[in-house]
Design a protein that fits this description.
With about 180 residues, the chain is an alpha/beta fold. It has seven helices and four strands; from the N terminus they run βαβαβαβαααα. Helices cover about 45% and strands about 15% of the residues. The longest helix has 21 residues. It is globular, with a radius of gyration of 19 Å.
Length: about 180
Protein backbone atom coordinates (compact mmCIF):
# COMPACT_ATOMS: atom_id res chain seq x y z
CA UNK A 1 0.00 0.00 0.00
CA UNK A 2 2.74 2.45 0.92
CA UNK A 3 4.47 1.73 -2.38
CA UNK A 4 1.25 2.74 -4.13
CA UNK A 5 0.95 6.06 -2.28
CA UNK A 6 -1.71 4.96 0.21
CA UNK A 7 -1.77 7.27 3.24
CA UNK A 8 -5.01 6.09 4.89
CA UNK A 9 -6.46 2.61 5.04
CA UNK A 10 -9.67 0.94 6.05
CA UNK A 11 -10.05 -2.64 7.20
CA UNK A 12 -12.91 -5.11 7.03
CA UNK A 13 -12.24 -8.67 8.07
CA UNK A 14 -13.80 -11.81 9.42
CA UNK A 15 -15.17 -11.45 12.96
CA UNK A 16 -13.07 -14.33 14.26
CA UNK A 17 -9.47 -15.19 15.11
CA UNK A 18 -8.52 -15.12 11.42
CA UNK A 19 -9.74 -11.53 11.16
CA UNK A 20 -8.13 -10.69 14.52
CA UNK A 21 -4.72 -11.84 13.33
CA UNK A 22 -5.00 -9.88 10.08
CA UNK A 23 -6.13 -6.73 11.89
CA UNK A 24 -3.23 -6.99 14.35
CA UNK A 25 -0.64 -7.46 11.61
CA UNK A 26 -2.19 -4.84 9.34
CA UNK A 27 -2.06 -2.34 12.19
CA UNK A 28 1.60 -3.07 12.88
CA UNK A 29 2.69 -2.79 9.26
CA UNK A 30 0.49 0.23 8.58
CA UNK A 31 2.18 2.04 11.45
CA UNK A 32 5.64 1.08 10.19
CA UNK A 33 4.77 2.36 6.71
CA UNK A 34 3.07 5.54 8.00
CA UNK A 35 -0.41 4.54 6.87
CA UNK A 36 -3.18 5.71 9.17
CA UNK A 37 -5.91 3.10 9.73
CA UNK A 38 -9.02 5.30 9.72
CA UNK A 39 -11.70 2.63 10.12
CA UNK A 40 -11.98 -1.02 11.08
CA UNK A 41 -15.05 -3.20 10.62
CA UNK A 42 -15.81 -6.90 10.96
CA UNK A 43 -18.21 -9.35 9.33
CA UNK A 44 -19.22 -12.98 9.73
CA UNK A 45 -18.46 -15.53 7.04
CA UNK A 46 -22.19 -16.23 6.64
CA UNK A 47 -23.46 -12.61 6.58
CA UNK A 48 -25.92 -11.78 3.82
CA UNK A 49 -25.14 -8.05 3.99
CA UNK A 50 -22.24 -5.84 5.03
CA UNK A 51 -23.80 -2.55 3.96
CA UNK A 52 -23.58 -1.00 7.43
CA UNK A 53 -19.91 -1.83 7.80
CA UNK A 54 -19.08 -0.60 4.29
CA UNK A 55 -20.91 2.70 4.82
CA UNK A 56 -18.88 3.26 8.02
CA UNK A 57 -15.65 2.48 6.16
CA UNK A 58 -16.50 4.79 3.30
CA UNK A 59 -17.45 7.60 5.68
CA UNK A 60 -13.83 7.56 6.89
CA UNK A 61 -12.60 8.14 3.28
CA UNK A 62 -9.70 5.65 3.21
CA UNK A 63 -7.36 5.68 0.22
CA UNK A 64 -7.50 1.86 0.26
CA UNK A 65 -9.42 -0.92 1.98
CA UNK A 66 -8.01 -4.28 3.05
CA UNK A 67 -10.56 -7.09 3.07
CA UNK A 68 -9.19 -9.79 5.35
CA UNK A 69 -10.87 -13.09 4.79
CA UNK A 70 -10.63 -16.13 2.58
CA UNK A 71 -12.65 -17.72 -0.15
CA UNK A 72 -15.97 -16.63 -1.55
CA UNK A 73 -17.31 -14.80 1.56
CA UNK A 74 -14.86 -11.99 0.73
CA UNK A 75 -16.73 -11.19 -2.48
CA UNK A 76 -19.55 -9.62 -0.41
CA UNK A 77 -17.60 -6.69 1.08
CA UNK A 78 -15.85 -6.02 -2.22
CA UNK A 79 -19.10 -6.08 -4.19
CA UNK A 80 -20.70 -3.80 -1.61
CA UNK A 81 -17.81 -1.33 -1.86
CA UNK A 82 -18.21 -1.26 -5.65
CA UNK A 83 -22.01 -0.96 -5.50
CA UNK A 84 -21.71 1.97 -3.07
CA UNK A 85 -19.28 3.77 -5.39
CA UNK A 86 -15.98 3.30 -3.57
CA UNK A 87 -13.18 4.50 -5.86
CA UNK A 88 -10.09 3.68 -3.78
CA UNK A 89 -7.85 0.64 -4.08
CA UNK A 90 -9.14 -2.67 -2.77
CA UNK A 91 -6.68 -5.18 -1.35
CA UNK A 92 -7.48 -8.74 -0.40
CA UNK A 93 -5.44 -11.52 1.19
CA UNK A 94 -3.86 -14.55 -0.48
CA UNK A 95 -6.95 -16.52 0.55
CA UNK A 96 -8.97 -15.37 -2.47
CA UNK A 97 -6.83 -16.91 -5.20
CA UNK A 98 -9.40 -19.50 -6.26
CA UNK A 99 -11.50 -20.04 -9.37
CA UNK A 100 -14.66 -19.84 -7.22
CA UNK A 101 -13.78 -16.33 -6.03
CA UNK A 102 -13.21 -15.18 -9.61
CA UNK A 103 -16.40 -16.82 -10.88
CA UNK A 104 -18.57 -15.43 -8.07
CA UNK A 105 -16.94 -11.99 -8.02
CA UNK A 106 -17.12 -11.35 -11.75
CA UNK A 107 -16.58 -7.74 -12.79
CA UNK A 108 -16.77 -6.53 -9.17
CA UNK A 109 -13.35 -7.99 -8.35
CA UNK A 110 -11.47 -6.65 -11.35
CA UNK A 111 -8.43 -4.68 -10.24
CA UNK A 112 -8.19 -6.35 -6.83
CA UNK A 113 -4.67 -6.29 -5.41
CA UNK A 114 -3.54 -9.42 -3.54
CA UNK A 115 -0.46 -11.56 -2.94
CA UNK A 116 -0.36 -15.08 -4.33
CA UNK A 117 1.84 -17.96 -5.40
CA UNK A 118 3.54 -17.63 -8.79
CA UNK A 119 1.82 -20.89 -9.80
CA UNK A 120 -1.55 -19.09 -9.96
CA UNK A 121 -0.43 -16.92 -12.87
CA UNK A 122 2.53 -18.96 -14.09
CA UNK A 123 1.64 -18.72 -17.76
CA UNK A 124 1.30 -14.93 -17.59
CA UNK A 125 4.54 -14.17 -15.77
CA UNK A 126 7.15 -12.22 -17.77
CA UNK A 127 9.81 -14.43 -19.37
CA UNK A 128 12.51 -13.02 -17.07
CA UNK A 129 10.54 -13.53 -13.83
CA UNK A 130 12.77 -15.47 -11.40
CA UNK A 131 9.95 -17.88 -10.45
CA UNK A 132 8.50 -18.50 -13.91
CA UNK A 133 10.46 -21.70 -14.65
CA UNK A 134 9.61 -23.34 -11.31
CA UNK A 135 5.98 -22.17 -11.46
CA UNK A 136 5.52 -23.54 -14.98
CA UNK A 137 7.14 -26.83 -13.95
CA UNK A 138 4.63 -27.16 -11.12
CA UNK A 139 1.66 -26.29 -13.36
CA UNK A 140 2.87 -28.79 -15.96
CA UNK A 141 3.23 -31.54 -13.34
CA UNK A 142 -0.16 -30.78 -11.75
CA UNK A 143 -2.81 -33.15 -13.13
CA UNK A 144 -5.66 -30.90 -14.28
CA UNK A 145 -7.27 -33.89 -15.97
CA UNK A 146 -7.59 -35.50 -12.55
CA UNK A 147 -8.34 -32.42 -10.40
CA UNK A 148 -10.15 -30.22 -12.92
CA UNK A 149 -9.16 -27.51 -15.37
CA UNK A 150 -8.20 -24.27 -13.62
CA UNK A 151 -7.81 -25.83 -10.17
CA UNK A 152 -4.23 -24.73 -9.58
CA UNK A 153 -4.55 -22.35 -6.65
CA UNK A 154 -2.47 -20.63 -4.00
CA UNK A 155 -3.12 -23.64 -1.79
CA UNK A 156 -1.92 -26.28 -4.26
CA UNK A 157 1.30 -24.32 -4.62
CA UNK A 158 1.63 -24.02 -0.84
CA UNK A 159 1.11 -27.75 -0.36
CA UNK A 160 3.62 -28.60 -3.07
CA UNK A 161 6.20 -26.37 -1.40
CA UNK A 162 5.64 -27.92 2.02
CA UNK A 163 5.62 -31.57 0.96
CA UNK A 164 9.40 -31.91 0.36
CA UNK A 165 10.05 -30.37 3.77
CA UNK A 166 7.56 -32.72 5.40
CA UNK A 167 9.15 -35.67 3.62
CA UNK A 168 12.57 -34.60 4.89
CA UNK A 169 11.33 -34.11 8.47
CA UNK A 170 9.71 -37.55 8.52
CA UNK A 171 12.87 -39.14 7.13
CA UNK A 172 15.05 -37.46 9.75
CA UNK A 173 12.62 -38.35 12.54
CA UNK A 174 12.06 -41.98 11.59
CA UNK A 175 14.96 -42.85 9.37
CA UNK A 176 12.51 -43.59 6.52
CA UNK A 177 11.08 -41.66 3.59
CA UNK A 178 7.43 -40.55 3.71
Amino acid sequence: MANHGVKTGGFIGFADSYGDSWLNEFGKFAELRHIKVVASERFNRTDASVTGQILKLMAAHPDAVLIAGAGTPTVLPQRTLIERGYKGAIYQTHGIATPEFIRLGGKDIEGTLFPTQPVVGARTLPADHPSKKAALAFVSAYDEDKYGKGTVTQFTGDAAGVYPRLQDAVARGTGARA
